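Input record (one chain):
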Amino acid sequence: MYRAIDSFPRWRSYFYFITLIFFLAWLVKNVFIAVIIETFAEIRVQFQQMWGSRSSTTSTATTQMFHEDAAGGWQLVAVDVNKPQGRAPACLQKMMRSSVFHMFILSMVAVDVIVAASNYYKGENFKRQYDEFYLAEVAFTVLFDLEALLKIWCLGFTGYISSSLHKFELLLVVGTTLHIYPDLYHSQFTYFQVLRVVRLIKISPALEDFVYKIFGPGKKLGSLVVFTASLLIVMSAISLQMFCFVEELDRFTTFPRAFMSMFQILTQEGWVDVMDQTLNAVGHMWAPVVAIYFILYHLFATLILLSLFVAVILDNLELDEDLKKLKQLKQSEANADTKEKLPLRLRIFEKFPNRPQMVKISKLPSDFTVPKIRESFMKQFIDRQQQDTSCLLRRLPSASSSSCDHSKRSAIEENKYIDLKLRKSVFSIRARNLLEKETAINKILRACTRQRMLSGSFEGQPAKERSILSVQHHIRQERRSLRHGSNSQRISRGKSLETLTQDHSNTVRYRNAQREDSEIKMIQEKKEQAEMKRKVQEEELRENHPYFDKPLFIVGREHRFRNFCRVVVRARFNASKTDPVTGAVKNTKYHQLYDLLGLVTYLDWVMIIVTICSCISMMFESPFRRVMHAPTLQIAEYVFVIFMSIELNLKIMADGLFFTPTAVIRDFGGVMDIFIYLVSLIFLCWMPQNVPAKSGAQLLMVLRCLRPLRIFKLVPQMRKVVRELFSGFKEIFLVSILLLTLMLVFASFGVQLFAGKLAKCNDPHIISREDCHGIFRINVSVSKNLNLKLRPGEKKPGFWVPRVWANPRNFNFDNVGNAMLALFEVLSLKGWVEVRDVIIHRVGPIHGIYIHVFVFLGCMIGLTLFVGVVIANFNENKGTALLTVDQRRWEDLKSRLKIAQPLHLPPRPDNDGFRAKMYDITQHPFFKRTIAVLVLAQSVLLSVKWDAADPVTVPLATMSVVFTFIFVLEVTMKIIAMSPSGFWQSRRNRYDLLVTSLGVIWVILHFALLNAYTYMMGACVIVFRFFSICGKHVTLKMLLLTVVVSMYKSFFIIVGMFLLLLCYAFAGVVLFGTVKYGENINRHANFSSAGKAITVLFRIVTGEDWNKIMHDCMVQPPFCTPDNSTYWKTDCGNYAGALMYFCSFYVIIAYIMLNLLVAIIVENFSLFYSTEEDQLLSYNDLRHFQIIWNMVDDKREGVIPTFRVKFLLRLLRGRLEVDLDKDKLLFKHMCYEMERLHNGGDVTFHDVLSMLSYRSVDIRKSLQLEELLAREQLEYTIEEEVAKQTIRMWLKKCLKRIRAKQQQSCSIIHSLRESQQQELSRFLNPPSIETTQPSEDMNAINQDNSAQPETSSQQQLLSPTLSDRGGYRQDTGDAGRHCPQRKIGQWRLPSAPKPISHSVSSVNLRFGGRSTVKSVACKMNPMSDAASCGSEVKKWWTRQLTVESDESGEDLLDI
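The corresponding structure, as predicted from the sequence alone:
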């Protein structure tokens, strides 16, 4: 990159290399880890038998056996295998098993470790054999030998050797005993001495459990280590046979050299040097083959093999499914307990006596003195009085109907628990018989269905795959029938064995489900009670302590100024507009911008802008332009302090400082805010003019660099990032202890073996230290590869330097501190090749094993352990660590559905014209594959350099022009086929149009200018075109979505990483801004300004020579010029500051922050990594739903009316199909759920898809506790409402039938009476008889009554209740009015015998009466209809209870 900066514009080099590192090294490379982890999780079940089941962390010395108790039962009893079996006295056995003895031994081990770590190099003339460290080692060895003998005497040799821990102790005893022999002291037996530190793991139970969890199941990790070693041996042997004959190549001459070279490639340190040397040695002919060989091995070793270690560690950290469910319940209970307790800063008020605020009632007409009354009581009384007054006003005719709604709601909420208990009791009393009948009917129907299947009644029908919606619906119904049918399990006489077995399994399933329900409800009630208790505690403190919830104990709780401060502090942008009718949230056009504005309050937005401006001002500071001497830079400092003072004052007045529920200092973020403010205020008031190096003023300037961390507190998502970092601090701390233990073991070994042996004279011709004196001439060369031809007698340029006997510049093993620093650098895989070469050259080839073993353990296990723990903590913080497999799949499905969008593909034109043909051509798979091949062919053109001076470039550009015209033709065909508006709907089409437009512009500029810039633009267009191919293949699209979604979700982590980098950059300018140039601190990489410091730190994030930069910043006199007056006048570094600065930065960024990116990529990869065998929705299901949605949503608006959901559900096929013949009730439930969602309003794409996803899974297995409770309550409500709607529809149709029959019968009687009247008037006409015709008023009444059923059909009838009796009688009475009426006292003559088909008129005989009665015929017809309706009701209830489809009930489904 630095060479590119010198050759090209600076911005181009930075942009290219930074994006290259971000995408390839941080995102794409980590996708391999995600792939390996998911693949390993898949094959875990297949290898479960080979790995063995996970065992608990209990000691292997304890077993459990069955013993019979006194009552005759059996119980598990723990039997200790370590029961004393030796011949030692009882007092010694008791002492050996006591905790005091164990603590004494562990304390002696700790002292031994401290003594061993205190060893250091004392010089060549010091006698090392019998120094104080040797005598201490002899004493400790004798002590631990006596401990082992005592345990063998007390336990017996068999009992002692049965424990794995005792085996390890015995091995250490034998090894250290041999180590104290003088000839073997400071030899390879030193390993046994330094390994004693491993025994200290027993001190911490958490550390012991963590170590057992990682290394306990050693089959997987051990097998992987063996596989890695075997791979190294095989590849070393192959490389030896391939390159041993190559001259001038000494890396593969022997097997050890070949092994070291292949191991170096495995660790990625200097592997390019190995490949380059081999390529230069083999020649140009075999160079491509050799390059491919090394690259493939490097990719396999770094991308797959290391990812396997991460996958194995994550698998070891994984819990069993049952244990996950148990921990979910325990965690919910723990959360409920924590919610119940108030913070300690609030519980301090409980230590003070209660002093409730009292009020005195005055102006009472009484002679008695009234005592003071609590103010809260008086307020409550006044509030109740006002509520009662409002309720009384509501009873008046002029009062509003909604004046007392609020009081009613509060009363209902207060009595919610009692109301629920009463409902449950009433329901249980009334519904017991109904549940028993329903269970019996269910059993009969299941038996009939089973008999039909066994008898082969379904033969001849094609086998059809059952949809997952139907399967899950029947699972729900079966589970409910088991619960309701628990009482019927009592009768078991006369049943077969198979039936009894089935009933027993059903009973067990019912009991398990009942137990789960009780546990979930218990936890929910416990949470509600905890929240209620916490509120009660706060109310009691608020009532009994007048200073509670008072900011600074001065401002009142309801003071106007405090309310004003609250309004200012909590004011934020709210763009979520709801529909007043449906209550649904309206989607605005710029909802993403509105969500961003509403992310924080207005006050926080102001402070974010002020903080960013202040950080920008700090970017211009440098050792040569300091804020103390630059007035323009002081403006931002004053503005920041003033605004932060206003902010803190407003927040303290609104929420309090410390002793209030919502205090400013209630967490670490509040402490950090106050700390940053105080540092900024002190610096602004002090403004020191002279800042000496390593002084308090310089420390204050370094603390001032923490200002960008304010954004962590102001942005909620940034606080979440910090919480994710620090919430898993326990496991990260345990991993750090393990790595420090590993480093301490190897550091102690290195001190005892290599102390003083790595020093060498700087004159390569001097070997002994005695001869290393005087001066010698050293030559200077410009480059390693530049060989200058010298004239005869001419010497190379050089200068004279003194001879010095010294250690290597960057590391040594003279004491434990320097040794651990060197091993920490090696642990980062930086500089370990140099350490290896120095040890082999100056101590011996056999000691090269030391550094290889440490690198293998530290890299393969230590660093991957860091990655695994960070990923596990990330999953635990997100709540996915304790999820079962089904729950994790459900969470992945929900996240995947949020990303899914409707297909932006317009429908095919209706006619078969030119557009339809174009549509068929562009949508054909062959056309798409051809375009993909053309894109790849155009990309191949970039394999040759496009140089304006090269004649080959012109034909390549011409071919690219031809490809561009083909892509223009493709876009034109799609626009014709889809229309311009339809083409613009797809984002992929927009991208293709953009790239094609750029291609057309390039073609014009290319033929017009024909220079280097046009060639560069053409290459960029080809690169942009290449990215379009990723969306045309399922696997490539999945990986691309993984990277894109990971970038989106890791945005705040990347921002947090940049803020940390900015803080370190500001601090680096203060600490190392004037350090002299060294090996890696040069004109490109230095800390002279904040911009260059950011570049250096970004380089350190990648791990590139960070240790060398650290050593350059550690330079001390006499290699630099000190200055005690000001730090900007010296070119010396800061040893302690550089050590803390670079090590902390590398650990936080490289070991934690970057591993969070890995965790996010692993999580997002699991979203898109699904197979067709998954029981949840697959890609084909989603694609099918998108196609059906496009058919229904013809306007491509993303929303459809509710009534169209029915058509959409009927169009679904495959696993989402709903069979109306079998699952009619499920169809009703789904339709009503969509109607209920937005109160009948339009539904979106994600609404329907979410409903289908819930219906397609087993909610008992996939949903978590809170979500499960909410979903079950929703489904119960939907079932009740659908049942009520069905009853209403059925009653409505029954009434229609009754009224139709009444109208028909009454019309027949009326016609008979008319015909009879006509006949009588013709043949009989006595004077006392008067025939009359129906009057016009009567006809009008009949017409009104005839129109009444039509109006009643439009009404929504409710389910029959007691209040509906009057209405029913009125309806029947109105129906009876259709019949002719006669007055009392009238008589009717018998009708003449006429055919029934004749029309007979009725005759009304007047006899002085006025009352009318209904005819007998009209009375009898409703009774017969009621009897038929009763049988229909019975049949209908049978169909509804059995949840079976009825072919004759098509009218019950209103579509």
